[in-house]
Design brief:
With 256 residues, the protein is of the alpha+beta class. 29% of the residues lie in helices and 27% in strands. It has nine helices and 14 strands. It has helices spanning 12-19, 31-38, 72-77, 79-84, 86-92, 98-103, 106-111, 119-125, 233-253, and strands spanning 5-7, 24-27, 46-49, 58-61, 63-67, 129-134, 137-142, 147-149, 152-153, 160-166, 173-180, 188-196, 201-205, 212-213. Strands 4-5-10-6-7 form a five-stranded antiparallel beta sheet. The chain has a four-stranded antiparallel beta sheet with strand order 11-12-13-14, sandwiched between helices. A three-stranded parallel beta sheet has the order 1-3-2, with helices on one face.
Length: 256
């Protein structure tokens, strides 16, 4: 791994200023970033740690508000989440392993833009919005608009994810299912998130290069399916049909 400088700002404004430079990357949990640095894919000269910015709170006042530095494990164990948005906890129990969830953060999982991540399609289906802050101010976008393609996000230079806001479940019912080719916590070949209510929302991932909204089974034929080591495009298209039906059935039977 190439040598780098580590900066630990104590304010969001300081962090944003530090990130407005070449060869600089934010460091949240670091689970994906460090692997990419060790592989030589990324060679930043400076990492800007976000751990001292107070962005780790999980709160609910109607909507659920999750700080970008909240770990996936803290989200999984949150009583607030368990009571109001239980589908998130169910999904997290099969996301990688406890060691990773203890370190990986919500903001990092979203900004990384790997289409195999489990969190983005479920949050998109739940109608979640991401609050971003940079040197040009604050903006809020739907989760699905955070992605431009495989490992490509739409963050501007110096911009950070600060929190995620998820509307209340009310009478909505939700499910997330994934098909893995090995263990249950492995990267998915296909992920399907379904939220049923006044507006039905279905998002797929892993088979596409970003979380993609689906308007029912008929729309599968029009998707650009991405084949990879988890399965061919034809295989994934078949899996999508099977798992979409299963996810809809599970959502119908869910309490939230």
């Amino acid at each position: 791994m190439a040598p780098f400088e580590l900066a630990e700002p104590r304010s969001l404004q300081e962090a944003i200023a530090l990130l407005d430079a070449d060869d600089t990357r934010p460091l949240s949990g670091g689970t994906a970033l460090m692997l990419m640095m060790k592989a030589g894919v990324l060679r930043p000269k400076r990492l800007v740690s976000l751990r001292k910015l107070g962005l780790d709170r999980i709160e609910a006042n109607g909507s659920l508000r999750i700080g970008a530095m909240a770990t996936l494990r803290s989200l999984e164990k949150s009583e607030i989440v368990r009571e109001g948005w239980p589908v998130i906890g169910r999904m997290l129990r099969t996301l990688s392993n406890v060691r990773v969830r203890n370190v990986a953060t919500v903001g990092g999982a979203l900004a990384h833009a790997d289409p195999h991540m489990d969190l983005p399609p479920l949050l998109a289906a739940l109608g979640a919005r991401v609050v971003l802050q940079g040197n040009q101010g604050t903006r809020t976008v739907p989760v699905e608009e955070l992605y431009a393609g495989y490992l490509e996000n739409t963050l501007k230079r110096g911009e950070l994810v600060t929190r995620v806001e998820i509307p209340p479940m009310q009478n909505r019912r939700a499910a997330y299912l994934k098909c893995t080719t090995r263990s249950a916590d492995d990267w998915p070949a296909v992920g399907v998130a379904v939220v049923l209510g006044d507006e039905n929302r279905i998002f797929v991932s892993a088979a596409t290069d970003r979380p993609t909204r689906l308007a029912g089974e008929a729309a599968i034929d029009g998707l650009k399916i991405e084949g990879d080591l988890h399965g061919s495009a034809a295989y994934k298209k078949h899996l999508l049909r099977v798992y979409l039906k299963r996810a809809i059935d599970e959502a119908r039977g869910a309490s939230h």
